[in-house]
Write a structure and sequence with these properties.
- The complex is a heterodimer of chains A (about 270) and B (about 260).
- Chain A has about 270 residues and is an all-alpha fold.
- Helices cover about 80% and strands about 0% of the residues of chain A.
- Chain A contains 10 helices and no strands.
- Chain B is of the alpha/beta class and about 260 residues long.
- In chain B, the strands form 2 sheets. Chain B has a 6-stranded mixed β-sheet with strand order 6-7-8-3-9-10, with helices on both faces. Chain B has a 4-stranded antiparallel β-sheet with strand order 2-1-4-5, with helices on one face.
- In chain B, α3 packs across α4 and α6 packs across α7.
- The longest helix of chain B is centred in the C-terminal third of the chain and has 20 residues.
- Chain B is globular, with a radius of gyration of 18 Å.
- The chains are: A mainly alpha (about 270), B alpha/beta (about 260).
- The interface between A and B is medium-sized, with 29 and 34 residues.
- The structure holds adenosine-5'-triphosphate and magnesium ion.
- The site of magnesium ion has 4 residues of chain B, from α1.
Protein backbone atom coordinates (compact mmCIF):
# COMPACT_ATOMS: atom_id res chain seq x y z
CA UNK A 1 0.00 0.00 0.00
CA UNK A 2 2.67 2.44 1.06
CA UNK A 3 4.96 1.16 -1.67
CA UNK A 4 2.18 1.81 -4.19
CA UNK A 5 1.84 5.42 -3.21
CA UNK A 6 5.56 6.00 -3.50
CA UNK A 7 5.98 4.54 -6.96
CA UNK A 8 2.95 6.43 -8.19
CA UNK A 9 4.32 9.78 -7.19
CA UNK A 10 7.66 8.91 -8.79
CA UNK A 11 5.90 8.15 -12.08
CA UNK A 12 4.46 11.60 -12.35
CA UNK A 13 7.84 13.31 -12.54
CA UNK A 14 10.28 10.81 -13.96
CA UNK A 15 9.99 8.00 -16.48
CA UNK A 16 7.08 5.71 -16.65
CA UNK A 17 8.53 2.30 -15.88
CA UNK A 18 6.17 0.58 -18.31
CA UNK A 19 7.26 2.68 -21.31
CA UNK A 20 9.54 0.74 -23.69
CA UNK A 21 12.72 2.28 -25.01
CA UNK A 22 12.57 2.40 -28.80
CA UNK A 23 15.54 2.98 -31.09
CA UNK A 24 13.80 5.89 -32.72
CA UNK A 25 11.03 8.13 -31.49
CA UNK A 26 8.36 9.85 -33.54
CA UNK A 27 10.11 13.19 -33.02
CA UNK A 28 13.42 11.68 -34.19
CA UNK A 29 11.81 10.37 -37.37
CA UNK A 30 10.39 13.81 -38.17
CA UNK A 31 13.84 15.40 -37.76
CA UNK A 32 15.38 12.87 -40.13
CA UNK A 33 12.69 13.55 -42.70
CA UNK A 34 13.46 17.28 -42.47
CA UNK A 35 17.12 16.60 -43.24
CA UNK A 36 16.23 14.36 -46.19
CA UNK A 37 13.91 17.01 -47.66
CA UNK A 38 16.65 19.63 -47.37
CA UNK A 39 19.19 17.40 -49.15
CA UNK A 40 16.63 16.67 -51.90
CA UNK A 41 15.96 20.36 -52.29
CA UNK A 42 19.68 21.04 -52.42
CA UNK A 43 20.14 18.43 -55.18
CA UNK A 44 17.18 19.71 -57.17
CA UNK A 45 18.21 23.37 -56.97
CA UNK A 46 21.89 22.83 -57.80
CA UNK A 47 20.86 20.63 -60.76
CA UNK A 48 18.70 23.37 -62.21
CA UNK A 49 18.76 27.00 -61.08
CA UNK A 50 21.97 27.50 -59.15
CA UNK A 51 25.38 27.73 -60.83
CA UNK A 52 27.98 25.35 -59.37
CA UNK A 53 30.27 28.30 -58.85
CA UNK A 54 27.93 29.86 -56.30
CA UNK A 55 26.83 26.70 -54.57
CA UNK A 56 28.16 23.20 -55.38
CA UNK A 57 25.87 20.18 -55.74
CA UNK A 58 25.94 17.30 -53.24
CA UNK A 59 27.80 15.09 -55.77
CA UNK A 60 30.57 17.68 -56.29
CA UNK A 61 30.91 18.07 -52.57
CA UNK A 62 31.35 14.37 -51.98
CA UNK A 63 33.89 14.15 -54.78
CA UNK A 64 35.97 16.91 -53.23
CA UNK A 65 36.14 14.95 -50.01
CA UNK A 66 37.55 11.98 -51.91
CA UNK A 67 40.07 14.14 -53.78
CA UNK A 68 41.33 16.02 -50.72
CA UNK A 69 41.24 13.18 -48.21
CA UNK A 70 44.92 13.38 -47.24
CA UNK A 71 45.15 17.11 -46.48
CA UNK A 72 41.64 17.16 -45.11
CA UNK A 73 42.47 14.85 -42.21
CA UNK A 74 45.56 16.88 -41.36
CA UNK A 75 43.65 20.17 -41.47
CA UNK A 76 40.83 18.72 -39.45
CA UNK A 77 43.20 17.50 -36.73
CA UNK A 78 45.01 20.86 -36.62
CA UNK A 79 41.74 22.69 -36.06
CA UNK A 80 40.47 20.20 -33.50
CA UNK A 81 43.70 20.43 -31.53
CA UNK A 82 43.38 24.23 -31.31
CA UNK A 83 39.71 24.11 -30.41
CA UNK A 84 39.94 21.42 -27.76
CA UNK A 85 43.17 22.47 -26.05
CA UNK A 86 42.41 26.21 -26.17
CA UNK A 87 38.91 25.63 -24.87
CA UNK A 88 40.02 23.36 -22.04
CA UNK A 89 42.69 25.78 -20.85
CA UNK A 90 40.28 28.71 -20.97
CA UNK A 91 37.35 26.91 -19.36
CA UNK A 92 39.38 25.42 -16.52
CA UNK A 93 41.09 28.73 -15.77
CA UNK A 94 37.74 30.51 -15.97
CA UNK A 95 36.07 28.21 -13.45
CA UNK A 96 39.10 28.27 -11.14
CA UNK A 97 39.28 32.08 -11.22
CA UNK A 98 35.51 32.42 -10.75
CA UNK A 99 35.59 30.18 -7.70
CA UNK A 100 38.67 31.96 -6.32
CA UNK A 101 36.99 35.36 -6.81
CA UNK A 102 33.92 34.30 -4.87
CA UNK A 103 36.11 32.70 -2.19
CA UNK A 104 38.13 35.80 -1.40
CA UNK A 105 37.20 39.44 -1.87
CA UNK A 106 40.83 40.48 -2.41
CA UNK A 107 41.25 38.02 -5.26
CA UNK A 108 38.00 39.46 -6.58
CA UNK A 109 39.29 43.02 -6.38
CA UNK A 110 42.44 42.09 -8.29
CA UNK A 111 40.80 40.05 -11.04
CA UNK A 112 37.53 41.92 -11.50
CA UNK A 113 38.95 44.94 -13.39
CA UNK A 114 41.01 42.60 -15.60
CA UNK A 115 37.95 40.58 -16.52
CA UNK A 116 35.73 43.62 -16.93
CA UNK A 117 38.37 45.08 -19.26
CA UNK A 118 38.58 41.91 -21.30
CA UNK A 119 34.89 41.00 -21.43
CA UNK A 120 33.52 43.74 -23.69
CA UNK A 121 36.24 43.24 -26.32
CA UNK A 122 35.34 40.66 -28.98
CA UNK A 123 38.32 38.29 -28.92
CA UNK A 124 38.48 38.28 -32.75
CA UNK A 125 39.51 41.94 -32.63
CA UNK A 126 42.72 40.84 -30.94
CA UNK A 127 43.79 38.47 -33.74
CA UNK A 128 46.11 40.99 -35.49
CA UNK A 129 47.98 41.54 -32.23
CA UNK A 130 48.27 37.83 -31.62
CA UNK A 131 49.72 37.26 -35.10
CA UNK A 132 52.19 40.05 -34.45
CA UNK A 133 53.23 38.67 -31.07
CA UNK A 134 53.06 34.93 -31.59
CA UNK A 135 53.22 34.45 -35.36
CA UNK A 136 50.87 32.21 -37.29
CA UNK A 137 51.57 28.99 -35.37
CA UNK A 138 49.48 27.31 -32.69
CA UNK A 139 50.46 29.43 -29.68
CA UNK A 140 48.56 32.57 -30.58
CA UNK A 141 45.48 30.61 -31.59
CA UNK A 142 45.47 28.62 -28.37
CA UNK A 143 45.81 31.75 -26.26
CA UNK A 144 43.07 33.51 -28.20
CA UNK A 145 40.68 30.57 -27.84
CA UNK A 146 41.55 30.24 -24.18
CA UNK A 147 40.77 33.93 -23.60
CA UNK A 148 37.37 33.52 -25.22
CA UNK A 149 36.52 30.46 -23.13
CA UNK A 150 37.93 32.07 -20.02
CA UNK A 151 35.69 35.13 -20.18
CA UNK A 152 32.56 33.06 -20.78
CA UNK A 153 33.33 30.61 -17.99
CA UNK A 154 34.49 33.11 -15.38
CA UNK A 155 31.31 35.15 -15.79
CA UNK A 156 29.13 32.02 -15.82
CA UNK A 157 30.83 30.68 -12.68
CA UNK A 158 30.48 33.94 -10.74
CA UNK A 159 26.83 34.32 -11.70
CA UNK A 160 26.10 30.68 -10.83
CA UNK A 161 27.75 30.88 -7.41
CA UNK A 162 25.80 34.04 -6.62
CA UNK A 163 22.56 32.15 -7.19
CA UNK A 164 23.24 29.03 -5.14
CA UNK A 165 20.29 28.78 -2.78
CA UNK A 166 21.44 29.96 0.69
CA UNK A 167 19.35 27.26 2.38
CA UNK A 168 21.82 24.57 1.18
CA UNK A 169 24.78 26.51 2.49
CA UNK A 170 23.04 27.10 5.81
CA UNK A 171 22.13 23.42 6.10
CA UNK A 172 25.75 22.42 5.44
CA UNK A 173 26.99 24.90 8.03
CA UNK A 174 24.69 23.56 10.74
CA UNK A 175 26.01 20.07 10.00
CA UNK A 176 29.60 21.07 10.62
CA UNK A 177 31.01 21.63 7.10
CA UNK A 178 33.96 24.00 6.82
CA UNK A 179 34.05 26.71 4.16
CA UNK A 180 36.29 24.59 1.93
CA UNK A 181 33.95 21.64 2.32
CA UNK A 182 30.96 23.82 1.47
CA UNK A 183 32.66 24.83 -1.77
CA UNK A 184 33.50 21.22 -2.55
CA UNK A 185 30.26 19.50 -1.61
CA UNK A 186 27.62 22.21 -2.05
CA UNK A 187 28.68 25.02 -4.36
CA UNK A 188 30.45 22.97 -7.03
CA UNK A 189 27.62 20.48 -7.56
CA UNK A 190 25.01 23.23 -7.32
CA UNK A 191 26.62 25.29 -10.10
CA UNK A 192 27.35 22.34 -12.39
CA UNK A 193 24.11 22.58 -14.43
CA UNK A 194 24.81 26.26 -15.16
CA UNK A 195 28.46 25.52 -15.96
CA UNK A 196 27.41 22.91 -18.54
CA UNK A 197 25.45 25.67 -20.30
CA UNK A 198 28.58 27.85 -20.20
CA UNK A 199 30.71 25.06 -21.66
CA UNK A 200 28.27 24.68 -24.56
CA UNK A 201 28.57 28.39 -25.35
CA UNK A 202 32.35 28.03 -25.05
CA UNK A 203 32.40 25.17 -27.58
CA UNK A 204 30.61 27.27 -30.19
CA UNK A 205 32.78 30.29 -29.45
CA UNK A 206 36.01 28.27 -29.61
CA UNK A 207 35.20 26.96 -33.09
CA UNK A 208 34.43 30.50 -34.23
CA UNK A 209 37.67 31.89 -32.78
CA UNK A 210 39.89 29.14 -34.18
CA UNK A 211 38.39 29.39 -37.68
CA UNK A 212 38.63 33.19 -37.63
CA UNK A 213 42.27 33.10 -36.57
CA UNK A 214 42.99 30.50 -39.24
CA UNK A 215 41.47 32.86 -41.82
CA UNK A 216 43.83 35.63 -40.83
CA UNK A 217 47.04 33.71 -40.68
CA UNK A 218 47.79 29.99 -40.60
CA UNK A 219 49.48 27.17 -42.45
CA UNK A 220 46.99 24.48 -41.58
CA UNK A 221 43.46 24.00 -40.39
CA UNK A 222 39.98 24.04 -41.86
CA UNK A 223 39.81 27.83 -41.73
CA UNK A 224 43.04 27.99 -43.71
CA UNK A 225 41.60 25.54 -46.24
CA UNK A 226 38.45 27.63 -46.69
CA UNK A 227 40.61 30.72 -47.18
CA UNK A 228 42.71 29.05 -49.88
CA UNK A 229 39.62 27.71 -51.62
CA UNK A 230 38.08 31.17 -51.65
CA UNK A 231 41.08 32.59 -53.49
CA UNK A 232 40.75 29.96 -56.21
CA UNK A 233 36.94 30.04 -56.21
CA UNK A 234 36.67 26.36 -55.25
CA UNK A 235 33.24 26.67 -53.74
CA UNK A 236 32.97 22.91 -53.28
CA UNK A 237 36.03 22.89 -51.01
CA UNK A 238 34.61 25.83 -49.05
CA UNK A 239 31.40 23.94 -48.53
CA UNK A 240 33.24 20.79 -47.42
CA UNK A 241 35.09 22.87 -44.82
CA UNK A 242 31.87 24.43 -43.59
CA UNK A 243 30.09 21.09 -43.34
CA UNK A 244 32.95 19.44 -41.46
CA UNK A 245 33.08 22.32 -38.99
CA UNK A 246 29.33 22.14 -38.51
CA UNK A 247 29.29 18.41 -37.93
CA UNK A 248 32.23 18.35 -35.53
CA UNK A 249 30.92 21.31 -33.58
CA UNK A 250 27.62 19.48 -33.24
CA UNK A 251 29.37 16.28 -32.14
CA UNK A 252 31.47 18.09 -29.53
CA UNK A 253 28.35 19.82 -28.22
CA UNK A 254 26.59 16.47 -28.11
CA UNK A 255 29.47 14.99 -26.06
CA UNK A 256 29.30 17.92 -23.64
CA UNK A 257 25.57 17.33 -23.29
CA UNK A 258 26.02 13.62 -22.64
CA UNK A 259 28.70 14.20 -20.00
CA UNK A 260 26.65 17.08 -18.61
CA UNK A 261 23.50 14.99 -18.35
CA UNK A 262 25.45 12.36 -16.48
CA UNK A 263 26.97 14.87 -14.06
CA UNK A 264 23.59 16.46 -13.41
CA UNK A 265 21.56 13.24 -13.37
CA UNK A 266 20.29 14.30 -9.95
CA UNK A 267 18.67 17.47 -11.28
CA UNK A 268 14.92 17.54 -11.83
CA UNK A 269 14.21 18.27 -15.49
CA UNK A 270 11.18 19.81 -17.05
CA UNK A 271 11.25 17.93 -20.36
CA UNK B 1 15.60 24.45 36.37
CA UNK B 2 18.60 26.01 34.66
CA UNK B 3 18.33 27.36 31.16
CA UNK B 4 20.17 25.36 28.51
CA UNK B 5 19.25 27.79 25.76
CA UNK B 6 19.03 31.32 27.07
CA UNK B 7 17.83 34.12 24.86
CA UNK B 8 18.37 37.53 26.37
CA UNK B 9 17.02 40.76 24.86
CA UNK B 10 17.51 39.57 21.30
CA UNK B 11 16.68 42.17 18.67
CA UNK B 12 16.96 41.87 14.92
CA UNK B 13 16.31 44.34 12.15
CA UNK B 14 16.80 43.83 8.43
CA UNK B 15 17.60 46.43 5.80
CA UNK B 16 14.91 45.33 3.39
CA UNK B 17 14.25 46.71 -0.10
CA UNK B 18 11.27 48.63 1.30
CA UNK B 19 13.21 50.11 4.20
CA UNK B 20 14.14 48.84 7.64
CA UNK B 21 12.20 45.89 9.02
CA UNK B 22 12.26 45.22 12.74
CA UNK B 23 11.77 41.47 12.87
CA UNK B 24 12.48 40.82 16.56
CA UNK B 25 12.36 43.16 19.52
CA UNK B 26 13.63 42.20 22.95
CA UNK B 27 13.02 38.51 22.83
CA UNK B 28 13.61 36.86 26.19
CA UNK B 29 13.24 33.14 26.57
CA UNK B 30 14.88 30.37 28.57
CA UNK B 31 14.68 26.76 27.51
CA UNK B 32 15.82 24.21 30.10
CA UNK B 33 17.84 21.17 29.05
CA UNK B 34 15.68 18.40 27.66
CA UNK B 35 12.64 20.57 27.09
CA UNK B 36 10.45 20.40 24.01
CA UNK B 37 9.45 23.99 23.35
CA UNK B 38 7.02 24.98 20.61
CA UNK B 39 7.09 28.44 19.16
CA UNK B 40 3.88 29.78 17.67
CA UNK B 41 3.07 33.20 16.31
CA UNK B 42 1.55 34.98 13.34
CA UNK B 43 3.22 34.70 9.96
CA UNK B 44 6.14 37.08 9.58
CA UNK B 45 6.58 37.63 13.31
CA UNK B 46 10.19 36.45 13.22
CA UNK B 47 9.99 32.78 14.22
CA UNK B 48 12.39 31.64 11.51
CA UNK B 49 14.67 34.55 12.24
CA UNK B 50 14.81 33.62 15.93
CA UNK B 51 15.59 30.00 15.13
CA UNK B 52 18.35 31.08 12.70
CA UNK B 53 19.86 33.21 15.45
CA UNK B 54 19.82 30.28 17.90
CA UNK B 55 21.44 28.12 15.21
CA UNK B 56 24.20 30.70 14.75
CA UNK B 57 23.30 31.26 11.09
CA UNK B 58 22.14 34.85 11.56
CA UNK B 59 23.66 37.45 13.86
CA UNK B 60 21.33 39.27 16.22
CA UNK B 61 21.38 43.07 16.00
CA UNK B 62 21.31 43.18 19.78
CA UNK B 63 21.13 40.88 22.78
CA UNK B 64 22.68 37.48 23.25
CA UNK B 65 21.91 33.80 22.84
CA UNK B 66 23.73 31.26 24.98
CA UNK B 67 23.57 27.52 24.57
CA UNK B 68 25.00 25.36 27.33
CA UNK B 69 26.45 28.50 28.87
CA UNK B 70 28.47 29.50 25.79
CA UNK B 71 27.49 32.43 23.57
CA UNK B 72 26.41 31.33 20.10
CA UNK B 73 28.77 32.71 17.46
CA UNK B 74 28.55 30.14 14.68
CA UNK B 75 26.65 26.95 13.81
CA UNK B 76 27.61 23.74 15.57
CA UNK B 77 26.72 20.17 14.60
CA UNK B 78 25.62 19.63 18.19
CA UNK B 79 22.75 22.00 17.33
CA UNK B 80 21.22 20.89 14.05
CA UNK B 81 18.28 22.29 12.20
CA UNK B 82 15.37 21.28 10.02
CA UNK B 83 14.47 24.13 7.72
CA UNK B 84 11.08 25.50 6.76
CA UNK B 85 11.93 25.10 3.06
CA UNK B 86 13.36 22.09 1.25
CA UNK B 87 17.01 21.89 2.28
CA UNK B 88 17.76 18.34 1.15
CA UNK B 89 20.76 18.47 -1.20
CA UNK B 90 19.38 17.43 -4.61
CA UNK B 91 22.79 16.26 -5.90
CA UNK B 92 23.27 13.74 -3.10
CA UNK B 93 21.51 10.43 -2.67
CA UNK B 94 19.32 9.80 0.36
CA UNK B 95 22.19 8.00 2.10
CA UNK B 96 24.68 10.78 1.30
CA UNK B 97 22.28 13.41 2.56
CA UNK B 98 21.65 11.63 5.83
CA UNK B 99 25.34 10.95 6.34
CA UNK B 100 26.43 14.50 5.50
CA UNK B 101 27.01 15.71 9.06
CA UNK B 102 28.75 12.47 10.00
CA UNK B 103 31.53 13.13 7.48
CA UNK B 104 32.76 15.92 9.71
CA UNK B 105 32.14 14.22 13.03
CA UNK B 106 35.31 12.15 13.07
CA UNK B 107 33.60 8.74 13.31
CA UNK B 108 34.87 5.90 11.13
CA UNK B 109 33.40 5.26 7.69
CA UNK B 110 31.91 1.92 8.73
CA UNK B 111 30.27 3.52 11.72
CA UNK B 112 28.90 6.29 9.51
CA UNK B 113 27.41 3.76 7.10
CA UNK B 114 25.85 1.87 9.97
CA UNK B 115 24.24 4.97 11.46
CA UNK B 116 22.93 6.02 8.04
CA UNK B 117 21.44 2.58 7.47
CA UNK B 118 19.71 2.61 10.85
CA UNK B 119 18.31 6.08 10.28
CA UNK B 120 17.02 5.18 6.82
CA UNK B 121 15.06 2.31 8.30
CA UNK B 122 13.94 4.43 11.23
CA UNK B 123 12.36 7.10 9.05
CA UNK B 124 10.81 4.52 6.76
CA UNK B 125 12.94 5.05 3.66
CA UNK B 126 14.23 1.50 3.38
CA UNK B 127 15.13 0.76 -0.23
CA UNK B 128 15.64 4.41 -1.12
CA UNK B 129 19.25 4.77 0.09
CA UNK B 130 20.60 5.32 -3.43
CA UNK B 131 17.67 7.39 -4.72
CA UNK B 132 18.10 11.07 -5.54
CA UNK B 133 15.71 13.53 -3.85
CA UNK B 134 13.93 14.23 -7.14
CA UNK B 135 12.58 10.70 -6.97
CA UNK B 136 11.01 11.30 -3.55
CA UNK B 137 7.70 12.79 -2.50
CA UNK B 138 7.58 15.93 -0.35
CA UNK B 139 6.98 13.93 2.82
CA UNK B 140 9.80 11.54 2.04
CA UNK B 141 12.19 14.46 1.52
CA UNK B 142 11.20 15.89 4.87
CA UNK B 143 12.05 12.54 6.45
CA UNK B 144 15.50 12.69 4.83
CA UNK B 145 15.89 16.15 6.31
CA UNK B 146 14.90 14.90 9.77
CA UNK B 147 17.21 11.90 9.61
CA UNK B 148 20.07 14.18 8.57
CA UNK B 149 19.44 16.41 11.55
CA UNK B 150 19.36 13.42 13.93
CA UNK B 151 22.47 11.78 12.47
CA UNK B 152 25.02 13.83 14.38
CA UNK B 153 23.13 13.01 17.58
CA UNK B 154 22.75 16.66 18.59
CA UNK B 155 21.71 17.82 22.03
CA UNK B 156 19.73 20.68 20.51
CA UNK B 157 17.32 20.30 17.60
CA UNK B 158 15.91 23.38 15.92
CA UNK B 159 12.90 22.68 13.76
CA UNK B 160 11.25 25.34 11.64
CA UNK B 161 7.77 24.20 10.63
CA UNK B 162 9.16 20.82 9.59
CA UNK B 163 5.76 19.25 8.96
CA UNK B 164 4.05 22.34 7.61
CA UNK B 165 3.58 20.95 4.11
CA UNK B 166 2.42 17.45 5.05
CA UNK B 167 -1.04 15.94 5.03
CA UNK B 168 -2.72 15.28 8.39
CA UNK B 169 -2.05 11.54 8.52
CA UNK B 170 1.63 11.71 7.49
CA UNK B 171 2.07 14.56 9.93
CA UNK B 172 0.68 12.54 12.83
CA UNK B 173 2.97 9.66 11.99
CA UNK B 174 6.00 11.92 11.83
CA UNK B 175 5.07 13.56 15.13
CA UNK B 176 5.06 10.14 16.78
CA UNK B 177 8.45 9.37 15.21
CA UNK B 178 9.77 12.67 16.45
CA UNK B 179 8.73 11.91 20.02
CA UNK B 180 10.61 8.65 19.76
CA UNK B 181 13.71 10.35 18.36
CA UNK B 182 13.75 13.22 20.79
CA UNK B 183 16.04 11.16 22.98
CA UNK B 184 19.80 11.02 22.32
CA UNK B 185 21.82 7.81 21.93
CA UNK B 186 22.75 7.99 25.59
CA UNK B 187 19.12 8.27 26.68
CA UNK B 188 19.12 12.00 27.39
CA UNK B 189 16.22 14.08 26.15
CA UNK B 190 17.19 16.50 23.42
CA UNK B 191 16.40 20.15 23.84
CA UNK B 192 14.04 20.99 21.00
CA UNK B 193 12.78 24.29 19.68
CA UNK B 194 9.96 23.56 17.28
CA UNK B 195 8.26 26.26 15.23
CA UNK B 196 4.74 25.57 14.02
CA UNK B 197 1.58 27.38 13.09
CA UNK B 198 -0.50 24.29 13.85
CA UNK B 199 -1.72 24.79 17.43
CA UNK B 200 -2.75 21.15 17.90
CA UNK B 201 0.70 20.07 16.81
CA UNK B 202 2.26 22.51 19.26
CA UNK B 203 0.22 21.27 22.21
CA UNK B 204 0.62 17.61 21.29
CA UNK B 205 4.41 17.84 21.09
CA UNK B 206 5.45 20.49 23.57
CA UNK B 207 6.30 20.72 27.23
CA UNK B 208 5.71 24.44 26.89
CA UNK B 209 4.33 26.64 24.12
CA UNK B 210 5.79 30.11 23.59
CA UNK B 211 3.36 32.49 21.91
CA UNK B 212 4.88 35.38 19.98
CA UNK B 213 3.45 38.79 19.20
CA UNK B 214 3.10 40.07 15.63
CA UNK B 215 6.14 41.79 14.12
CA UNK B 216 8.34 43.06 15.67
CA UNK B 217 8.22 39.69 17.39
CA UNK B 218 8.58 39.25 21.11
CA UNK B 219 7.49 36.49 23.48
CA UNK B 220 3.95 37.26 24.57
CA UNK B 221 3.50 34.40 27.04
CA UNK B 222 4.84 30.91 27.65
CA UNK B 223 2.22 28.30 28.53
CA UNK B 224 2.76 24.96 30.25
CA UNK B 225 1.31 21.89 28.60
CA UNK B 226 0.27 19.62 31.46
CA UNK B 227 -0.29 16.34 29.62
CA UNK B 228 1.89 13.44 30.78
CA UNK B 229 4.05 11.46 28.32
CA UNK B 230 3.88 9.25 26.39
CA UNK B 231 0.93 10.96 24.78
CA UNK B 232 -1.66 9.14 22.72
CA UNK B 233 -2.99 10.69 19.54
CA UNK B 234 -6.43 10.63 21.14
CA UNK B 235 -5.57 13.30 23.74
CA UNK B 236 -6.30 15.84 21.04
CA UNK B 237 -9.98 15.12 21.56
CA UNK B 238 -9.94 15.78 25.31
CA UNK B 239 -11.59 18.93 26.64
CA UNK B 240 -8.42 20.09 28.40
CA UNK B 241 -6.51 19.86 25.14
CA UNK B 242 -9.13 21.80 23.26
CA UNK B 243 -9.39 24.38 26.03
CA UNK B 244 -5.63 25.04 25.81
CA UNK B 245 -5.89 25.28 22.06
CA UNK B 246 -8.70 27.83 22.41
CA UNK B 247 -6.63 29.83 24.87
CA UNK B 248 -3.64 30.08 22.51
CA UNK B 249 -5.88 30.90 19.58
CA UNK B 250 -7.44 33.70 21.58
CA UNK B 251 -3.98 35.12 22.39
CA UNK B 252 -2.99 35.13 18.73
CA UNK B 253 -6.25 36.65 17.54
CA UNK B 254 -6.40 39.49 20.07
CA UNK B 255 -2.77 40.46 19.45
CA UNK B 256 -3.43 40.47 15.73
CA UNK B 257 -6.38 42.82 16.18
CA UNK B 258 -4.50 45.22 18.45
CA UNK B 259 -1.62 45.72 16.07
N1 LIG C 1 16.95 38.26 4.86
C1 LIG C 1 15.95 39.11 5.12
N2 LIG C 1 15.97 40.35 4.62
C2 LIG C 1 14.99 41.22 4.89
N3 LIG C 1 13.93 40.95 5.65
C3 LIG C 1 13.83 39.72 6.17
C4 LIG C 1 14.83 38.72 5.93
N4 LIG C 1 14.47 37.60 6.57
C5 LIG C 1 13.30 37.87 7.18
N5 LIG C 1 12.92 39.14 6.95
C6 LIG C 1 11.70 39.80 7.49
O1 LIG C 1 11.65 39.54 8.85
C7 LIG C 1 10.33 39.24 9.25
C8 LIG C 1 10.29 37.92 9.97
O2 LIG C 1 10.57 36.88 9.06
P1 LIG C 1 10.55 35.35 9.47
O3 LIG C 1 10.90 34.56 8.29
O4 LIG C 1 11.39 35.17 10.67
O5 LIG C 1 9.01 35.16 9.84
P2 LIG C 1 8.27 33.84 10.35
O6 LIG C 1 7.70 34.15 11.66
O7 LIG C 1 9.15 32.68 10.25
O8 LIG C 1 7.09 33.74 9.30
P3 LIG C 1 6.38 32.42 8.71
O9 LIG C 1 5.47 31.89 9.76
O10 LIG C 1 5.59 32.96 7.56
O11 LIG C 1 7.43 31.48 8.30
C9 LIG C 1 9.48 39.25 8.00
O12 LIG C 1 8.73 40.44 7.98
C10 LIG C 1 10.45 39.24 6.87
O13 LIG C 1 10.00 40.05 5.84
MG1 LIG D 1 9.23 31.00 9.08
Amino acid sequence: MKQDKLTNSADAISEDATKKRRWITGEGAVSIITVLILVALWTALTDSYIDDLYFPSPMDTIQVVGRMEGVLVGYFLATMYRVVVGMLIGAVLGVVCGVAMSWNKWINSVLDPLIEGLRPIPAVALIPFFILWFGIGDTGKLILTAIGGFTVMVVTTLEAIKHVSPIYIMAARTLGASRLEIYRTIILPAITPTLIGGVRVTVALSFALVIASEFMGAQSGLGYMIMLARRTLQTDAILVGVIIIGITSWIVDRCVRIVGNYLTRWAPRSE
Amino acid sequence: MSAYISIADVTKSFAGTAGRIDALQNVNLDVPAGEFLCLVGPSGCGKSTLVFIIAGLVKASGGEVRVGGKPVVEPDPDRTMVFQGDAVFPWMTVAQNIGYGLRYSGVSKTEQDQTVKQLIDLVGLTGFAEAFPKELSGGMKKRVDLARAYATNPTVLLMDEPFGALDAITKEKMQVDLMRLSVTDTGQRRTIVFVTHDLEEAIFLADRVAVMTPRPGAIQVVLDVPFPRPREASIRLSTEFQALRGQIRELLVTEEEES
